[in-house]
Structures are given as structure tokens and as C-alpha cells.
């Protein structure tokens, strides 16, 4: 079975800093599954609450109706603001709500997109919302269009590579931040390169190897990288 994310569009957004973000916009099927999970959670909680409140009679009914209102309208808003743009259903599907420029969703946008769910739901079963998503390049329902939001696939966290164990030595000369990062990147990615390529790259950093060559130069650069990341041996 193919990954549904591959069927969706990729939107390229350039930030004011000149960085291009590649946002994988989520389609109607993934969003519908997330909505179904959220509905099970919301109404399951309400059903469980009703079992306890039934003993309170009319007072219990009043509490239940207030809770119904709060959960129906503010459950998605609170999660989108305080849980990195994802309700429990969206998190399960790897989805996230962001602003159209890729920034985290804020209170006005979260409130607008969720309050307009009442319009998206018309005439039944999110009819207007589904039509809006199908004709929108970025699969935006009416609430998304009004709030300027997108539902995208959340990128999995990148696991940093570990430096090979060994001694740590301070570099023999001052290095700029970019040079330090380059040295650390070399040490992290070295194990996935063949020995010849490692030695070739080490030769380009001869100023840091104190005249060493070959395998010895590679090991010296790794020792400097360990020092730069805070290891002391």
C-alpha cells in the first residue's frame, strides 16, 4: 500500500530569512481519519462522564451540556495551541496545523478555523468542507481559508548521529562557528563513508591535523570534534 503522503502536494514556502520550507500538505483522507479518532476520544469521554453525572439528575445534565460545549469547540483549539498544532487524532496520523507561511498556529487562527467548522459541516457530514478541500490546491477547508492555515504532515525528528568513541583534543587553532560545525559533521558522518573518502576529506582540513595524514589525520579530526561537542578525556 502506498504512503498517502506521497499523493499530496508539497508546498514550497520561503521564510523572511530566505529559508525554503517544504510543507507536505495533508489530503482529505488523512484528515478524515484524524477527525474520526478525535471524535471517538471526545464522545467517549462525554459518554464516560454521563455515567457519573446521571446520578445528579438535572444538575448533572447541566454540567454535561457545559462540558459538551467546551469539548466540542475548544478541544481542537487548545491542542493546536499547546500541543504543537496537533490534536490527539492528528498526532496519531502524523499531522500538524500551521499557518500558511509555515509558522506555528496562533490563537486567532486556531479559533477561526475551528469556529467555522459549523459552516464546513453544512449541509451534512462536512459537505462544504470536503468540496472546498477538493477544489483547493492545498486541501484547505473553508475554516483553513479564512484562518490562513494548512494541515501538513509532521516531519519525523532527525536523530543526531553519535560520534565514535575515543580521545578528545582541543583544535590547534581558533575555528569559526561554521568551521566547528563542519568538523563535527565530518566526525558524525565519517562512519558511513569509505576509508578513502574519509582520508580525502581529512586532507582538506590539513591545518587541523598537525601534519598527520591518512587514518591518523581522520582520527585527529574526530578527537577535535569530540572536544567541540563537550567531551573531555
Structural overview:
This protein is mainly alpha-helical. It contains ten helices and four strands; from the N terminus they run E-E-H-H-H-E-H-H-H-H-E-H-H-H. Helix content is 52%, strand content 9%. Helix 9 (195-203) packs across helix 10 (214-228).
Q: Which class of secondary structure composition applies to the elements?
A: mainly alpha
> Mind describing the biggest β-sheet?
2 strands, antiparallel
Uncertain segments are 1-8
Give the strand tally: 4
Characteristic key phrases:
233 residues; mainly alpha; two-stranded antiparallel sheet; two-stranded antiparallel ribbon; elongated; disordered N terminus
Per-chain topology:
Blueprint: E1 10-14, E2 20-24, H1 28-53, H2 58-82, H3 88-93, E3 95-99, H4 107-115, H5 117-120, H6 127-135, H7 142-147, E4 149-153, H8 177-189, H9 195-203, H10 214-228
Antiparallel strand pairs: 1-2, 3-4
Helix pairs in contact: 1-2, 2-4, 8-10, 9-10
Amino acid at each position: 500500500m502506498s504512503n498517502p503522503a506521497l499523493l499530496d502536494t508539497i508546498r514550497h514556502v520561503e521564510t523572511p530569512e530566505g529559508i525554503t520550507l517544504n510543507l507536505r500538505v495533508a489530503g482529505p483522507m488523512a484528515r478524515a481519519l484524524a477527525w474520526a479518532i478525535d471524535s471517538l476520544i471526545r464522545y467517549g469521554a462525554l459518554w464516560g462522564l454521563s455515567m457519573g453525572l446521571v446520578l445528579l439528575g438535572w444538575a448533572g445534565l447541566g454540567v454535561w451540556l457545559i462540558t459538551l460545549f467546551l469539548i466540542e469547540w475548544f478541544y481542537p483549539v487548545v491542542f493546536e495551541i499547546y500541543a504543537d498544532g496537533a490534536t490527539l487524532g492528528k498526532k496519531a496520523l502524523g499531522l500538524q496545523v500551521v499557518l500558511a507561511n509555515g509558522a506555528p498556529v496562533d490563537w486567532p487562527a486556531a479559533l477561526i478555523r475551528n469556529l467555522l467548522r459549523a459552516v464546513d459541516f453544512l449541509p451534512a457530514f462536512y459537505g462544504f468542507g470536503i468540496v472546498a478541500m477538493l477544489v483547493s490546491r492545498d486541501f484547505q477547508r473553508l475554516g483553513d481559508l479564512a484562518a490562513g492555515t494548512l494541515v501538513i504532515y509532521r516531519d519525523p525528528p532527525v536523530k543526531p548521529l553519535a560520534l565514535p568513541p575515543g580521545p578528545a583534543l582541543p583544535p590547534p587553532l581558533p575555528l569559526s562557528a561554521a568551521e566547528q560545525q563542519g568538523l563535527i559533521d565530518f566526525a558524525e558522518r565519517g562512519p558511513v563513508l569509505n576509508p578513502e573518502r574519509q582520508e580525502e576529506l581529512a586532507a582538506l582540513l590539513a591545518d587541523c591535523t598537525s601534519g598527520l595524514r591518512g587514518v591518523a589525520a581522520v582520527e585527529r579530526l574526530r578527537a577535535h570534534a569530540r572536544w567541540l561537542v563537550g567531551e573531555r578525556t
